[in-house]
Amino acid sequence: MPKKYSIERVLAPSRFPPVGKFVIERNEKECIHCGRCTLVCLYGVHKRREDDPRFMSEPVNHLCKGCFRCIQECPQEALTIKNNDNYLLLGDSYWSPEIFSKIWYQAETGSIPVSGAGYTGPFSGEGFDSMWTDMSEIVRPTRDGIHGREYISTSVDFGRKVPILTFDTKGKIISPLPQICSIPMPIIFDVIPFGYSKNIYEALAKAASFLGTFMLIDPAEWFNSKYRASLVPLLTDLSKNWNQKFGLLEFEGLIKKCKMVEVAYDREVLKVIEEIKKISTETIISVRVSFGDTTTKIVEELAFAGAEVIHLCADINGKVIDSFDEQRFVKDAILDTHKLLVDHKIRDEVTLMLSGGIAMAEHVAKAIICGADVTAIDLPLLIALECRYCKRCHDGLSCPVELKALNPDYGAQRIINLMGAWRDQLLEVLGAMGLRDVRRLRGEVGRAILYEDVQHETFDTIFGEGGTHNIKSSY
Amino acid sequence: MRRSTQFLEREGHTISNPVIKFAPSNFPKDICEVEVIRDVTKCISCGMCAAVCPFGVHERKTGYNRVSKPLSYLCIGDACKDQPFYCVDHCPKKALSVGQNQNYISIGDSRWTRDLILGTWKQAEKGLPLHGLKYEIGNSGGGFDRLFFKFPKEGRTEAIENDAINTELELNKREGRKISIRVPFYGGGMSFGSVSLKVMLARAKAARAWGTFTCTGEGGYPEALKPYDDNMITQVATGLFGVSEESLQRVRIVEFKYAQGAKPGLGGHLLGDKVTAEVARMREAVAGSSLFSPFPFHSVYSVEDHKKHVDWIKEINPDALVSVKVSTPSDVDMVAVGIYYAGAHIIHLDGSYGGTGAAPDIAKKNIAMPIEYAIPMVHEFLKEEGIRDKITVIASGGIRTAYDAAKAIALGADGIVIGTADLVALGCVRCGCCESNRGCPRGIATTDPELSEIITVEWGAQRIINLYAAWRSTLIDILKQLGMQSITELVGRHDCLINADYIKGKETG
What is the pLDDT of residue B273? Predict the structure, then answer.
């Protein structure tokens, strides 16, 4: 049995008070400072003023859980609870306020979000919300992984795999074995979308090297050889300078140093790969392809040409980038790509990496079910560092959480905490499905309950064919 | 054997419905939709409003000069506008206004909307059914919230008296002792530890009043429930907390919990904060340490193993009915057939959006399918196998109202199990803070001695009795509109339902 991988977590409290869901307003005219609210509140929202205990201090809103006790027990009806506008305005329609508050919680504590009462959200939704993961019951046993009672492996491999091994008469393997490299969990860090600063890079690199995973980085921005085992330089615009043999020489040192490099896709990419392999045969090469209408063709071509890793990117909201169908979601795109490679009987030979719109732990599991080997995350890394995605930095304005002044050690711990919590949630899902290895989850569409399918299987027979399958989520 | 004859005697004669008593909120101020605002700078305290309002919103207490603060929760809101006693119109100084209550906006979520929570409170208060779409569906945009009844224009049975409409459900369709419940629902498992003993007692009392059942959950069988043995189901779950021969022999129904809808594939969670000395004693565990039940039953890895389980119960308590609670994986139909052939009497399907005292959010949202799909899947498959009329199918997990219950039955269940609605009747606002610290701030899902004082057993039982009465009236109303006389006629009648996603618009072009 391999050594158990576990992620040690240390409490890393937020530097700034988080944005809470509720605002409690105290009507100063009505309040008689009786202190009933301090007695009934379990969460410390209401306190007396420290300098003058005759009076109540302002409610500490971010601690409020919305239990309505103080509202209902205030003898003067002086308290009102409101939804916090700042909370509702966090992020956008894809990066919902709930995603923020959950990532903050996980980055701080390293624990998975556990709560009472049933699920509170919409029935289903777009993209990853239009599927459920399956579980096992009685006929196929589950696995008791989460508390370490059974070991569930989450490690995945990068690199090309051979479909068959050939042996000589003495039993020695004669087929050439490709380079392969394992990381202990199916999540790597993608290039961050904004907020470039030395401290953030340092924090990310520290976390990546602690976790034993990879971090994609633009070497023109930042590179520190100390972390080279975890860094994956993203080399762009190579073929533009191809004829001068200029592009690669510049990166030669980097290519030799790193376990893996990533090159952006263009028509000359196969030539680039060839040249890189000349510099270092041991370096694994990933090809970054933007999801679009031609993706499946490109992937097919690359897979047959011997590409080791294909990194498929969608935009930050998980939408396909170059497509006629603007609403096409990364989940469906990866599913189609995966199926195509399965049809061509080449799926197992190549590693597919997926990025774009991975916002919660469940998205990792769902992306893998839909055919990705490994996922890459971007914005959640910044959110873990308390980013509010207010985009003020896009306009050159000051950052409300002073990301540039981040202490890299503290930042790294927040990210380690988040990844620890995400991995635990992945274990929960794998355990419920009775799987002991995340590699077995890849492309297991039979272990997904897809909204369209289940609607078709059950309701079509009852209500007649051709439901609109409108996925509505509104509140 | 002595006890079973006792039951037969009791089942022989009819029992009248329990008494509905007014049971207002246990907090001094109730949360309501409307807010009556008096502008004190304009008010001259003439007392006109107190004189016209028939609901007692405005009051001038004897001996007081000023009219007291409006009691908004008594106001009927917009419905009052056209009435001759509308205080806003009568006020000579135009000092009054009626608006939406700020607090009301912040309560609820898309599954349990503010109106469903407040509506359940109203039903628990007065025991009367509520009408109007906002009390029927939530805002989740799928499942029950997209299903509606299609009432025929003719053939309604509205002339029939309410008492002649049969809402009874026979739980045993196999050989052996028959057990019928007077309403087609019973209470779901909530363990001692996840909720307080008072809540358990209140639920048990209400179950006895309505001639139905409630379930102990997996946290053992507290002695205080002894008087309610005939209305209890005891649960054998993966943690096996407090399971003993004695506790299995006390009851008429034993439930195996293989999985729970809110956390399928995971064992029960009781975080350390809530494991008080008392809870620890009941569970034979150490106080203060988190209790995570294992998953699965490590003695069950096949349907054959499952049969051994059922046989074990039948050996210990031969008269008991065996209920098997499972979650809703994609092969739930196969699981259901297996359960039948293992000899169980009841299949209890718990859908993925069901309630819980503590569960990882990822499990609540993502693992297994919603109950709306599982019911027709199991119902149809059991029919194809020719065993549908030999086993009782009970559904739970996200059933919030009597309308949801009726829809679940029309989709193919025989009856349903209530969990969260019971707690909402006791004042739950679904803040989701049941799991840690001292537990529920409203005194429901807690074992904290001080917090449990918020609820009294008598009050709690009355609230649940009232809620069940309102639900039963609603079910009767639905049956009458469908032209039916018994709830059993509704089972599997999906032709009575329409799905908003399947309504075809007019052909264009």
Answer: 87
